Amino acid sequence: MKAFVQKQLAKKVKRLLDQHNPIIVAVTGSVGKTSVRNAIATVLSAKYSVGTTIKNYNNEFGVPLTILGQESPGKSALGWMKVLMKTPKGLPQVFVLEYGVDHPGDMAHLCGIAQPDVSVFTRVSPVHVEHFRTVEALAEEKASILEHTKKAGLCVLNKDDKRVLGLAGHASAPVSTYGYADGADVQATDYRLETREDFSFEPGERFSTMRLSVQTPKDQVVVELDNVLGRASGSAVLPAILVAQHLGLTQEEILSKIGDITFEPGRMNALPGIKGALLIDSSYNAAPASMAEALNVLSEFHVAESARRVAVLGHMAELGSYTEQEHRMLGMRAAEAGVDLLVCVGQMTQDTHEAAIEAGIPEEHVQHFDDAVEAGRWMDREIRKGDVVLVKGSQSARMERVVKDLMAEPLRAKDLLVRQSEYWQTN
Q1: How many Cβ atoms sit within 10 Å of the Cβ of residue 95?
Q2: Last residue of a domain, one of 194, 229, 258
Q3: CA-to-CA distance for 231 and 339, rounded, in angstroms?
Q4: pTM
Q5: How far apart are the first and last CA of the chain?
Q6: pLDDT tens digits, residue range 56-71?
Q7: Gap between the Cα atoms of 294 and 66, Å rounded
Q8: C-alpha to C-alpha distance for 112 and 14, rounded to whole angstroms
Q9: Domain harbouring 100, CATH code
């Protein structure tokens, strides 16, 4: 049944795309896909009607469902028949889609359904690597998106990632780059994150302002975003500007939408916490690269006297043979980031716990819990006024449960947090 539905979905979507010929912008990478996808879709909406990936629909079922504008009926055979029978009357002018891979051949299959006019490759990190021999093999699989990009299109690469840049030879279309690195076609400079040194953070306030100067082949723009955190979030704006210019948007159109860029729940969002603390909610998922970026952001906050930088870190899943190595590295990175209190969650973070102590965090300032519920209850008692608390971990760590325990507005959890549907609440 699964194979039949998958085949029929692909056929239906191919016919639909041939009929309407929308522009396909496809985003891949180990880290940052969703943030980049959201930024591109937001900016392009200044000129085009835009459809974009819903939920985390980035696989052989999710991509067709997004194009059809329908949600998955789960295990319902009748529901899938209804999906296959229903055809949208029209399509947006542009689709901005995420392409995820778990197994060899996944990328070719997705590009066979919807061939990209523009492809964007964010970063490579050892996540989803369990079905690949090495990180390099995973990178090669993702790089096949560049081979399948239409020759008259554009391949967009993150110049800050040497692995990604090294795959430029796979591109079948012209290549443009973005990043903080010198020589990037769209380059960010003068990154600044201004944070409040405060004894109390309350709902509705501005907690931080991020500023970037962005040089493009056409002009220079200044980007300013409130309550958007970190260089990685700033980096997500760069391919949006690059793709928008490629598709004919003016500077005025681009700037009119940059201020509207938001990041989905669980992606480095600043939330007021109980007792006047500030939460950095990055509970959606985690990979080594995104963990390092999140800790860098935490280190950029200047906490008030008696307040602390706190990191509540769940395990990182699907690392295969890199599991122990990367969890130990996480503990060392927490020490380098100036974390005052480290809370580790899950069996795999035993290595993080040990490495953090070895790297210099006092043993009494490192805690370990088996699950997120236990960690949240402990933090509920221990959190202080003015603390800045990073919460991050892989989906299976369920770190949103910690955030829900600590957020100042728990009645808004369905709007502000990930995995709040009935399915996730009962699993």
Answers
A1: 23
A2: 258
A3: 19
A4: 0.85
A5: 25
A6: 899 999 999 999 999 9
A7: 29
A8: 8
A9: 3.40.1190.10
Is position 263 within any domain? Answer: no
**Within 13 A of 289's CA, how many CA atoms are on the CB side?**
18
Indicate if 112 and 151 belong to the same structural domain.
yes
**236-265: pLDDT as tens digits:** 999 999 999 999 999 999 999 998 998 889
If asked whether residues 285 and 170 sit together in one domain, one would say no
Residues pairing with 389 in the sheet? 279, 310
For residue 413, the one-letter residue type is: A
Cα–Cα distances in angstroms (integers) from residue 164 to residues 31, 171, 185, 294, in the given order:
12, 11, 15, 21
Q: In terms of C-beta density within 10 A (0-12 exposed, 13-18 middle, 19 or more buried), how is residue 73 classed?
A: middle
Question: Quick one: 328 and 249 in the same domain?
Answer: no
Taking residue 202's Cβ as centre, other Cβ atoms within 10 Å add up to 11
Q: Which of 223, 258, 293 is the last residue of a domain?
A: 258
pLDDT number for residue 175: 98
pLDDT digits (tens, 9 = 90+) for 137-182: 999 999 999 999 999 999 999 999 999 999 999 999 999 999 999 9
Is there a single domain that holds both residue 143 and residue 284? no
> With b meaning 16 or more CB within 10 Å and e meaning fewer, what string describes 276-311?
bbbbbbbbbbbbbbbbbbbbbbbbbbebbeebbbbb
Query: Within 13 Å, how many C-alpha atoms sit on residue 363's CB side?
Result: 2
**332 in the same domain as 355:** yes
Q: Is residue 211 part of a domain?
A: yes
Range of the domain at 203: 2-258
Look at residues 100, 91, 80, 56 and name the one whose alpha carbon lies nearest to residue 7.
80
In whole angstroms, give the CA distance from residue 118 to residue 385. 47
H-run or E-run covering 309: strand 309-314
Question: 169 and 27: one domain?
Answer: yes
pLDDT above 70 (res 127): no
Q: Is residue 420 part of a domain?
A: no
Say if residues 191 and 212 touch (Cβ distance below 8 Å).
Answer: yes
